[in-house]
Amino acid sequence: MNLTILPALLGHGLYGVLGVLLAEVARDCYHLAGHYWSPLIPWHNLHHKAYRPDLTKTSEALYRRAELLNDVPEAVFMVAVTALAGWLLNPSLWLGTAYAVGFLLTSLGRSQGLWADTDLTHLPGDLGEPPSRWIVNRTYHWRHHFDRTTAYFGGTFTVVDQVLGTALSFKNKTIAITGASGALGTALLAELSQKGAKLIALTTNPDHSFPDGVEVVCWQLEREAQLSQLLQRVDILILNHGVNVHQDRSAEAIALSYAVNTWSVWRWLELFLHTVSESKHRALKEVWINTSEAEVSPAFSPLYELSKRAIGDLITLRRLDAPCVVRKLILGPFRSKLNPIGIMSPRFVAWAITALAQRDCRNIIVTINPLTYVLFPISELMRSLYFRLCSRANSTQPN
Ligand SMILES: NC(=O)c1ccc[n+]([C@@H]2O[C@H](COP(=O)([O-])OP(=O)(O)OC[C@H]3O[C@@H](n4cnc5c(N)ncnc54)[C@H](OP(=O)(O)O)[C@@H]3O)[C@@H](O)[C@H]2O)c1
Question: pLDDT by residue (tens digit) across 262-312?
Fold first, then answer.
């Protein structure tokens, strides 16, 4: 083979891939216009009306009309954008045009009743897995239809939602937060209230006064199970309570650190995962665990590090098979009772956490320590690979 043509081939291949990506971005832009540009809204509404929550069609006639008036023009737009880009920039972008023509032909065929199957993200039936991170699966797209129509716009890739911050909507979600009376708990309640969530403060401090509109529920360490009924109606559980014994290394300090930072968090997590029992729960329910950057960096408090690393490792192991989204919060020092010399403000940290969650970060890192942005992803990847290779989801029980 003549190796001199290799760079040219690679260049064509790269432009071809860019053409396909451009077609997808054009699809998502057309979709956005279908929600915000009045001439397109009635046509796009047909698409929304064509499905029930189990993604079966409401009527064959409506489905075909929606294909003709929504999906066909959308595919024509994809063809036009990629054809123009290929003409103006580089002919290899026309691979995106060929890709878009495929969608045009299938949507035309569906609109004429030539075949009954819908596309992959609208196939009927139960949602079998949590929303995916990069490529839109049925569960991800289901939320666009039945959670919030002004979020989750991605058609094939989630990148447009990540840029717009529409990969997670808090509007009307019931969100419960432990450690609610603390610095970050208070800041998260304020931030999420602004984003339209219904809030439950889970607190061990019955004397603390919370803002109006927040439902307050008291709980006690080791009696987490008393609130399992409440968790049924919670969409997002944020496990945020924590304790720092600083330099203490007494037996009591060891017991307290693990009791609060590890085992209580673990019990809450398991109770919540048991509430993920229906198809729609896999789309809507989430649990966030505030483990801290002490998972990978020194916190100058050995028991804090040990207990936070223990829960961090357990989460990494458990989320390999979790039935819903599990996020970790990897936070650097912020000012609170637990860390009076923290540098960041809890308000900023709460804002950053919600902004990154809306971009679907599964490991939300907010810190001033640049090393954590490098060390945590590497450590998390290595540990999760090791756990995946050396453990099984359903090991046989001993006789
Ligand atoms: N501050 C930092 O620099 C930093 C950095 C990384 C991660 N974090 C983590 O962020 C989370 C929030 O901490 P914060 O900084 O906001 O501290 P904070 O103001 O002290 O809040 C911690 C809250 O945890 C709950 N809590 C404390 N002791 C408890 C116990 N024995 N049993 C059950 N709940 C208990 C209390 O909430 P209730 O009274 O409402 O139950 C307390 O207000 C913690 O998990 C912490 O480890 C903090």
Answer: 999 999 999 999 999 999 999 999 999 999 999 999 999 999 999 999 999
Active site residues: 304
Pocket test for ligand 1, best of 186, 204, 223, 261 (most atoms within 8 A of CB): 204
Cα of 105 to ligand 1 centre, how many Å?
Answer: 56
Task: Give me the residue label for tokens 């050396």.
Answer: 390
The residues spanned by each domain of the chain are 3-126, 174-390
Q: Which CATH number fits domain 174-390: 3.40.50.720, 3.30.70.890, 3.30.43.10, 3.30.457.10?
A: 3.40.50.720
Q: Answer yes or no: are the C-beta atoms of 49 and 41 closer than 8 Å.
A: no
Task: Identify the residues whose C-beta falls under 6 Å from ligand 1.
Answer: 179-185, 203-205, 221, 240-243, 260, 290, 292, 331, 333-334, 336-339, 342
Task: Indicate the residue type of 192.
Answer: L
Residues 6+ apart with CB under 8 A from 277: none
Other beta carbons within 10 angstroms of residue 174's beta carbon come to 16
